UniProtKB/TrEMBL annotation:
<dbReference type="GO" id="GO:0005829">
    <property type="term" value="C:cytosol"/>
</dbReference>
<dbReference type="Pfam" id="PF08206">
    <property type="entry name" value="OB_RNB"/>
</dbReference>
<dbReference type="InterPro" id="IPR003029">
    <property type="entry name" value="S1_domain"/>
</dbReference>
<dbReference type="InterPro" id="IPR012340">
    <property type="entry name" value="NA-bd_OB-fold"/>
</dbReference>
<dbReference type="Pfam" id="PF00773">
    <property type="entry name" value="RNB"/>
</dbReference>
<keyword id="KW-0694">RNA-binding</keyword>
<comment type="function">
    <text>3'-5' exoribonuclease that releases 5'-nucleoside monophosphates and is involved in maturation of structured RNAs.</text>
</comment>
<dbReference type="Pfam" id="PF17876">
    <property type="entry name" value="CSD2"/>
</dbReference>
<comment type="similarity">
    <text>Belongs to the RNR ribonuclease family. RNase R subfamily.</text>
</comment>
<dbReference type="GO" id="GO:0006402">
    <property type="term" value="P:mRNA catabolic process"/>
</dbReference>
<dbReference type="InterPro" id="IPR013223">
    <property type="entry name" value="RNase_B_OB_dom"/>
</dbReference>
<dbReference type="Pfam" id="PF00575">
    <property type="entry name" value="S1"/>
</dbReference>
<feature type="domain" description="S1 motif">
    <location>
        <begin position="631"/>
        <end position="711"/>
    </location>
</feature>
<dbReference type="InterPro" id="IPR004476">
    <property type="entry name" value="RNase_II/RNase_R"/>
</dbReference>
<keyword id="KW-0269">Exonuclease</keyword>
<keyword id="KW-0963">Cytoplasm</keyword>
<keyword id="KW-0378">Hydrolase</keyword>
Length: 715
């Protein structure tokens, strides 16, 4: 068909599709309607396929052609640095691939309408963006580059893969190397990039602190508290007033301690413990978990409460904390500081020798912390039996030993029911006074951190079960059962190593995964299979329904223990306190039923934002650290394998890529089933969990990537 005729027919069909009276038709029906003979139907198909590719037509699963919006799917566009992207659509198991030339003006995070263009069996669906419904990026943070008469901004977020054009006179005087905030004024099109105006200069890329400040701005993390919050904070006393102590259970005589990291300033949990020996019966432990009564000071609907919900969580970056609540509260009256009377909400539990909570009470209390302990000091007592530390805290050594005893019982009880305990090392990045990383080391858990974990878990479970059976509107921390398909794939993969997973009608019990982790402990494949198991599970979130917690193998779980830094905890403290004071009226019940679903969604979303920001600052500083170590050699473990190479994690938690092009001894092919790269001639393999020796080859601090080259295999 001649090009001119082809274009003419396209225009005819486009006009037909736009006709309000048109209803979707199959190709045969269209041909009959337009009186096109059978011999020319292939030409009609070419015309319709071209309209689909251009996003001017859509096609249903039954092959009916119509306006694209009739068959459009809605989802969130996730960009890739190379220009293409994926769209996650509700109800679809797999994201839809969007080629680079079909993304339209969509940027990472935008809500878009797409049409499916290719749907071949066994292959990922391919689509085309036909409309952007909601913009995620009204402002973008990036690096300014100046040309003679204009400039452009390279976004920090590599998933926004299009530079933003800055017209002359719209740059606020920015120069090369400035980190800036740009407001997008025109999102452009498939062929034309976005345009914007510089609204703020954050600082030069080489200035100390500019890197993390840029990231704070990029994630929209709130820094300063608004004036109305600061005005409210002035009215809050520095000490607990006598009138506030009335009507509370007075626990000031109990030996009470906080146990936290050395740097912690917001101490929101304290513990007490005693042991009762009963004639002819197993002993009874009386554990008190005392949580700062933040809701006493942060009242519902107040400016501080609205700001806390807006933030939803404290964000812990490498060089700073962006708190949910102002420091006067989080480090002051709401921090359970030693030597001060404090208001608390306490979960007082009676626990038998098997680790079962056989009785409990939740009460508003008055406490007095005797000692502010660190994990290091408590571990020195209960694990190392360090004489100097034991002498310093001699009045509390017996209680710490008792805590270790009970924590071991609680942990064994959780393990018995199938609780899964992943023990991946987190990293601690040490900075100098100018914010430059001088050391990176894994932050290992010890006996003291486990004591606090075990006690907080017990309190969270106890509170969740209590309020579930009271049938009161509540917020739960849910970790739903894994997707059966993912578990099936995990089961097939671990068969390669001689392990099996038992399931019942496609469902798997957490005990099975726990048993797997126990079997692989200390084996060469431990790191590999632990990571794959974790990746096969769903992400925990906040819900109004009690969906249980798969990872902890419990039917009831909530977050009760950190109201200074997590909004869900603060929210349920209010519900608990209202219940203690006579129960919820019908009006208040309806109120919570109305607001809690939105609180659950928002806090889950902002928790993910905080996690991502924390990971990105860590990656940034790790790149900065490794930039000074190019040419150095390290031993590491393969932590990920893809078609373009494999990732290696070093003992200090730094991760880098060995690109497949650097494997020069053979031609390597990616085996997706076994997650390994295999040489065609040598049969040499690179697979997850394998030890390798690498050399640091290159670091891109802007893209936050580290490149390694292999030196030789270890063992």
């Amino acid at each position: 068909m001649e090009q001119e005729l082809f274009e003419q027919r396209k225009k005819t069909m486009e006009a037909l599709l736009k006709d309000p009276a048109y209803v979707p038709m199959k190709l045969k029906e269209l041909a009959i309607l337009l009186d096109i003979p059978k011999s020319q139907r292939d030409e009609l198909r070419e015309v319709m396929d071209a309209l689909v590719v251009e996003g001017k037509a859509g096609v249903s699963k039954k092959g009916k052609y119509g306006r694209p919006e009739l068959f459009a799917l809605t989802g969130i566009f996730c960009g890739h640095p190379k220009g293409f992207g994926f769209v996650a659509c509700e109800g679809m198991e797999q994201d839809v691939f969007i080629p680079a030339d079909k993304t339209g003006s969509a940027l990472h995070g935008d809500k878009v309408q797409i049409v499916i263009e290719e749907e071949a069996p066994g292959r990922r669906k391919e689509g085309c963006v036909i409309k952007v419904l909601e913009r995620a990026n009204k402002e973008v943070v990036g690096l300014y580059q100046k040309n003679k008469k204009f400039g452009f901004v390279i976004p920090d977020n590599v998933k926004i893969c299009r530079d933003i054009f800055i017209p002359q006179g719209k740059d606020m005087g920015a120069v090369n190397g400035h980190k800036v905030i740009v407001r997008i004024t025109d999102y452009g099109s498939q062929k034309r990039g976005p345009e914007g105006v510089v609204t703020e200069i954050i600082g030069h890329i080489n200035d100390p602190g500019t890197d993390i400040l840029s990231l704070v701005k990029a994630y929209g993390l709130p820094e300063e508290f608004p004036p109305e919050v600061m005005k409210q904070i002035q009215k809050i006393p520095d000490q607990v007033e006598e009138g506030e102590k009335a009507g509370r259970l007075d626990l000031r005589d109990l030996p009470t301690v906080t146990i936290d990291g050395e740097d912690a300033k917001d101490l929101d949990d304290a513990v007490t413990l005693s042991k009762e020996i009963r004639d002819g019966q197993e002993p009874l432990y009386h554990l008190g978990v005392h949580i700062a009564d933040v809701s006493h000071y942060v009242t519902e609907g107040s400016p501080m409460d609205k700001e806390a919900l807006k933030r939803s969580t404290s964000v812990y970056l490498v060089d700073r904390v962006i708190p949910m609540l102002p420091h006067k509260l989080s480090n002051g009256i709401c921090s359970l500081n030693a030597g001060e009377d404090r208001l608390a909400l306490s979960c007082l539990m009676d626990i038998d020798g098997k680790g079962r909570v056989i009785g409990h009470r939740i009460a508003e209390t008055l406490i007095h912390v005797d000692r502010r302990m660190t994990y290091t000091a408590v571990n020195a007592i209960v694990s190392d039996r360090d004489e100097k530390t034991m002498e310093e805290y001699r009045d509390f050594v017996a209680m710490f030993d008792l805590m270790k005893e009970l924590a071991d019982i609680l942990r064994a009880q959780r393990k018995k029911r199938g609780s899964i305990d992943f023990d991946f090392p987190e990293s601690k990045i040490i900075l100098d006074e100018k914010g430059r990383p001088i050391d990176i080391r894994p932050y290992e858990r010890n006996a003291a951190t486990k004591i606090i974990e075990d006690f907080m878990l017990a309190a969270n479970e106890t509170v969740a079960e209590d309020y579930f059976w009271q049938e009161i509107p509540f917020l739960y921390r849910s970790h739903e059962n894994p997707d059966p398909e993912k578990m099936k794939r995990l089961g097939l993969f671990i068969n390669n190593f001689g392990y099996t997973l038992k399931s019942h009608q496609g469902e798997i019990h957490p005990k099975e995964l726990q048993a797997l982790l126990t079997k692989i402990e200390g084996t060469p494949e431990e790191a590999l299979l632990s990571r794959l198991t974790l990746r096969s599970m769903k992400q925990a979130r906040y819900t109004t329904e009690n969906n249980g917690h798969f990872g902890l193998a419990t039917r009831y779980y909530t977050h009760f223990t950190s109201p200074i830094r997590r909004y869900p905890d603060l929210q349920i403290h209010r519900i608990i306190k209202e219940t203690i004071h006579g129960g919820l009226s019908d009006k208040r019940r309806r109120h919570y039923e109305k607001i809690l679903p939105d609180v659950a969604v928002q806090t889950s979303s902002l928790e993910r934002r905080a996690d991502e920001a924390e990971r990105e600052t860590d990656k940034m500083k790790k790149c900065e650290y490794m930039e000074k170590r190019i040419g150095e050699e390290y031993e590491g473990v393969i932590s990920g394998v893809t078609g373009w190479g494999f990732y290696v994690e070093l003992p200090n938690t730094v991760e880098g890529l060995v690109h497949v092009n650097e494997l020069r001894d053979d031609y390597y092919v990616f085996d997706e089933e076994r997650l390994e790269l295999k040489g065609e001639m040598t049969n040499r393999t690179y697979k997850l969990g394998q030890k390798v020796k690498i050399q640091v080859a290159a670091v891109d601090t802007f893209a936050r990537t580290i490149d390694f080259v292999p030196v030789r295999e270890v063992g």
